[in-house]
Design a protein that fits this description.
Blueprint lengths: L13 H14 L5 E2 L11 H12 L12 H11 L6 E4 L3 H11 L5 E6 L3 H9 L3 E6 L9 H10 L7 E6 L11 H14 L1 E6 L21 E5 L12 E4 L2 H15 L4 H10 L9 H14 L11 E2 L4 H7 L4 H12 L1 E2 L1 E2 L11 E4 L4 H15 L1
Parallel strand pairs: 1-10, 3-4, 3-5, 5-6, 6-7
Antiparallel strand pairs: 2-8, 7-8, 9-12, 11-12
Helix pairs in contact: 1-12, 2-9, 4-5, 4-8, 6-7, 10-13
């Protein structure tokens, strides 16, 4: 069987390859504490679950519109100060990465992206034919800056194709939150250079400023968001996008043809979620990990939002004779029974890092850190 050229642009990230290794260990009967999960440890709140159950009882089990129910779109529009024509709902946030890129990007167009990056950003952009320009943020404290973006733009000034940038704050995998003043400069630079901004704000509620969004600086920003992290609804698969209405029409066509409709049951639960308080920020867990890393002298940029931190284990790897992040994560998995995520999943330059999720009950997080400490020292 001969596969398409397009299919060769999609590969399995080490993130997903390593998660299978974790499952294998669990299948052998080992008790693994996972610091690799990208979801809250909380269960979905009762009110939201009840709304889903009521939807089933009331036979809300038929097709939804491809862009979500008008009731949910109106509720999201009211929260974000736009009209329902700006809103589309789908089965999680990820379909919008595909739908937005497929709607905008032609072969050879540039997509600027800060590294370390969430793996599907790169995979989806390249599968659409984009020329991805990665901007290493190690020299700037794991934060994209207007100066580093300008340098990348100037280096590609010869390319007359359309240009885009994807911004993710709070960031996966680093947990950093970009300073508002810097974001404002980035937005202004993009306006000057005609670069469209796609803002992934899925972790926005888990931060010190849960109501901040990049559209505060420009109504032209395309926002991708979800209820997965904010309301512990990962399995319900409800995400949404805020787009200019003319783009939303095209995005809707991709949803109709590639995705279908979001679950009518999840749609009903989302309406209740929007009237509920989001999950609390994980300040306590964040500080536990910062303190642990500090005591062990492991270099790290402080996480300020979301559920992740991205420490650099280069010295520990040297001490243990470990050459890459996959082997380091395997060592921690096999020797400590603790799962982490190899840094190479987020870019080749980050092969001495691990992504650690601290979104666990504090007592379980403390146990995981104790286990890691034993095999590090």
């Amino acid at each position: 069987m001969k596969f398409s050229n397009r299919s060769s642009r999609l590969t399995s990230s080490p993130l997903y390859v390593f998660s299978r290794k974790v499952k294998e260990q669990e299948a052998l009967g080992r008790e693994i504490i996972s610091l690799g999960l990208g979801e809250p440890f909380y269960d979905t709140p009762e009110k939201i679950k009840e709304a889903g159950i009521e939807a089933i009882k009331n036979n809300k089990t038929h097709y939804n519109p491809a862009a979500g129910s008008m009731e949910l779109r109106k509720a999201l529009a009211a929260i974000h100060g736009v009209t329902p024509e700006h809103i589309s709902v789908s089965s999680g946030a990820k379909p919008f990465l595909g739908a937005v890129f497929w709607s905008l990007v032609d072969e050879g167009d540039i997509v600027y992206m800060a590294g370390p990056y969430y793996p599907p950003f790169l995979q989806i952009a390249e599968s659409c034919g984009a020329q991805v320009v990665l901007i290493d943020t190690k020299p700037t404290g794991l934060r994209l800056t207007a100066d580093s973006l300008k340098e990348a733009i100037d280096a590609n000034a010869h390319n007359q194709k359309k240009s885009y940038i994807i911004i993710n704050s709070p960031n996966n995998p680093t947990g950093v939150v970009y300073e508002k003043a810097e974001l404002e400069k980035i937005v202004e630079l993009c306006k000057e250079r005609g670069i469209a901004i796609i803002s992934d704000e899925c972790y926005g509620k888990l931060s010190a400023d849960p109501d901040f969004g990049l559209r505060n600086f420009s109504e032209d920003v395309i926002v991708i968001n979800s209820l997965s992290k904010s309301h512990a609804m990962t399995g319900w698969r409800i995400g949404y996008a805020i787009c200019p209405p003319e783009l939303n029409v095209i995005v809707g066509r991709f949803l109709e043809n590639y995705i279908g409709c979001p679950s009518s049951i999840s749609d009903a639960a989302a309406l209740v979620a929007l009237k509920s308080e989001p999950l609390p920020d994980l300040v306590g867990q964040r500080e536990l990990v910062h303190s642990w890393l500090g005591r062990l002298g492991i270099p790290h940029t402080k996480s300020e939002g979301g559920i992740f931190i991205f420490p650099d284990f280069a010295e520990i790897m040297k001490k243990k004779g470990i050459s890459n992040s996959v082997d380091l994560a395997t060592y921690f998995l096999e020797e400590a029974g603790v799962a982490t995520t190899p840094g190479i999943s987020f870019g080749e330059k980050y092969d001495t890092h691990l992504r650690i999720s601290y979104c666990l009950k504090p007592e379980i997080l403390i146990e995981a850190l104790k286990r890691l400490k034993k095999v590090i020292l």
